[in-house]
Amino acid sequence: MRKRKFFPLSLIFIFLFLGCSKELIRPRVVNPPPQAKSPSRSSEATIDSNLSAETTPRDEFEEVELYYALGVAANQDGRWLQAQDHFEEALELLANLDIEEGDSLRELRFERLLNEIAEDYKITLLGLGVLSEESSISAFLQRFQDIENFKALQRGTVEEIEPAKQKITYDMPIEWNQRVENSIIYFQTVARGAVETYLKRSGKYKELMQRIIREKGLPEDLVWLCLVESGFNPKAYSWARAVGPWQFIASTGRNYGLRRNWWYDERRDFVKSTYAACDYLTFLYNKFKSWPLALAAYNGGEGRVEREMKKQKRNNFWKLRLRKQTENYVPLYMAATIIAKDPKRYGFDVEYDEPIQFDVVEVNQPMDLKKVAKSLGSTLDLLKELNPELRRGVTPPNYPGYKLRIPVGTKKLFVQKFKGYDAKTSGLFVEHKVKKGQTLSHLSHRYGVPISAIMELNGLTNRHRLSIGQRLIIPANGGTTAKTNSSDVSASKEAKKQISGTFTYTVKKGDSLSELALKFNTTPGDIRQLNKLKSAHRIYVGQKLNISQASLSSGGLFKEHIVKRGENLSYLAKKYGVSLSSLMSANNLSSKHILKVGERLLIPVSSDVTLQTYVVKKGDTVSDLALRFGSSAGEIKKLNDLTNPHRIKKGQKLKIPTRNGNGDKGKTNGRWITYVVKKGDSLWNIAKAFGVLIEKLIQWNNLGAPSKLQVGEKIRIFLTN
């Protein structure tokens, strides 16, 4: 990777140099050696690795935990759509954190949160049955992995949906087999809404990406890998910590010239990452001499695929036993390509987004995208869409010749508006005079900016050497534009309100008491009584309402306690009003156990929480059991010391937490209703409307031809309480 230098402070504020170019913006290093363990490092890289423990303000983890708690609480109440929103928000916040390799403490906290969110989110996906239109790519792939019986989803015979090969041509080896057919069925049913969104969005980037793919001499149909990787979303993230339209993890991105720091992440750039993906795919194809194997390696890693090939003595992807996710990946890609080539044949009537267009200018000073948008008569959202790699709404400092994308046709206006622009007066930075006792750590927390960003901006190489009276340049507003910063604060406050209990809510257009009750986990009657409303139907825009809800911070049947000096089991049992035996049972402890300071314990939230023994049956998963017993996957995992919650065996005995002992049969309370099929109904929209699985609708009603519902037909649906 090309080395970057620290420039003197005076160079940050040199005059803007404007360039005129219609060329695509490429990564600075197009094809570094894939075998390299790490890119060449500059002093900047060394600073980032040494100071990684300070690279993210601590309260960002707290926001993640807030949204996670909200998601768990929504899960337990069966509010699946709300749970999904909260989990997606938590995952997006995690994706935006700077966690560098070697930062053991932050990595540990990150991984713990990520794994816990993923486990509880899987319960949400099972409860929903169908994906929302903006589900993350992790949800998209996980839901496919959870489906066991694709025959139940079959919407016709193989002959009816097999592609018309004489009309459609492919420049990739596309096969038709049961695994590909299952993927098509999944796209047509459970993931229908998400796939429609992905196809619609493909119109924005397909032509640009295919132009790059042609330039690199690769098959153009590789563009549909983006549908499976990210849904053509430049800001997509995954549970594997991959980011961007081509889903690069940090290390692979670095190997192919995609840089990231506090200011930008080039993995999100739809041009730079496409060049990098082409280089990586070229390397993989040259290595494996097979596109299915190359794609499998793109997903699962070339080392793992190569080891399995040698171990199993096979070089045919379809006969290899790989991780389930990787085995699913290639059929999903082929199904995506088949559908994308002829969407109407498979029931998708897509109105594609217009192809993205832009002009490019070079800037040598940090610029506020909000100010640029206003000067060009555009919007901040459009500037962010054109420049998705920018994480702070600001072009990066110390980056001479940065190529900024602006709306097409606005280059002359840009030159006119920003002639003589001086970043000193932009309000993006503040000057700080160091006082006695102040350290970089102190300034980092005061201004909400990581130490590495302050050091880079000021050309510092030693975090411990600050002089009294020294003047430092520090990003204002935590390095974000005013609009972005305020919206983040607002979101954080809203999350904290939902956690804390009683708060004041300002009525918005379209609000009703029933909707507010659903949103804030309370009842219309409680809101009406708390606010002394005479009529449940008369609330008005701008009205202030007091909303009260139960605390959600515990997030389940247990809450966590970190042992402090002097505490023992008897003291904690008395403090929390639980029996000593239940406390020991919940944590697999004996009466002789001596607590250690910092040890984490599970505390039952009330005396009616009991533990029962459950014998695992064939097909059981931790997520399924959590859903059935009203617990959480994380609780079951910890109660049973499960190192891998995905591996439980038939006959294995597990401790399962329940309330009032009502979960011993593993059944969910609920009621049956009868729904009369109306014109235009399908199993997909019925399942979505009632928040149940399509598979369950088929099973409950013994449907032989689920695609052929008759108007007036009665469908039995089981709704959980």
User: How far is the first residue's CA from the last residue's CA?
Assistant: 57 Å
Average pLDDT reading: 77
The biggest sheet, with number of strands, parallel, antiparallel or mixed sense and barrel status, is: 2 strands, antiparallel
The counted number of beta strands is 12
What is the CATH architecture term of the domain at 152-346?
A: Orthogonal Bundle
Quaternary organisation of the protein chains: single chain
Secondary-structure-based class equals: mainly alpha
Gross morphology is globular
Strands across the major sheet, in which order?
Answer: 1-2
> Can you tell me the CATH class of the domain at 152-346?
Mainly Alpha
Separate helix tally = 29
Give the helix level as a range of percent: 40-55%
Return residue spans where pLDDT drops below 50 for at least 5 consecutive residues.
1-23, 26-58, 155-160, 482-500, 549-555, 661-668
CATH fold topology of the domain at 152-346? Lysozyme
Report Rg: 28 Å
Tell me briefly what this model is.
With 721 residues, the chain is mainly alpha-helical. Among the domains are: 152-346, Orthogonal Bundle (Lysozyme); 502-549, Roll (Membrane-bound Lytic Murein Transglycosylase D, Chain A); 558-659, LysM domain (Membrane-bound Lytic Murein Transglycosylase D, Chain A, Roll); 670-720, LysM domain (Membrane-bound Lytic Murein Transglycosylase D, Chain A), CATH 3.10.350.10. Helix content is 42%, strand content 9%.
Could you walk me through the main structural features you see in this protein, from its secondary elements to its overall organization?
With 721 residues, the protein is mainly alpha-helical. Among the domains are: 152-346, Lysozyme (Orthogonal Bundle); 502-549, Roll (Membrane-bound Lytic Murein Transglycosylase D, Chain A), CATH 3.10.350.10; 558-659, LysM domain (Membrane-bound Lytic Murein Transglycosylase D, Chain A), CATH 3.10.350.10; 670-720, Membrane-bound Lytic Murein Transglycosylase D, Chain A (Roll), CATH 3.10.350.10. 42% of the residues lie in helices and 9% in strands. It contains 29 helices and 12 strands. It has a two-stranded antiparallel sheet with strand order 1-2. The protein has a two-stranded antiparallel ribbon with strand order 3-4. Mean pLDDT is 77; it is low at 1-23, 26-58, 155-160, 482-500, 549-555 and 661-668.
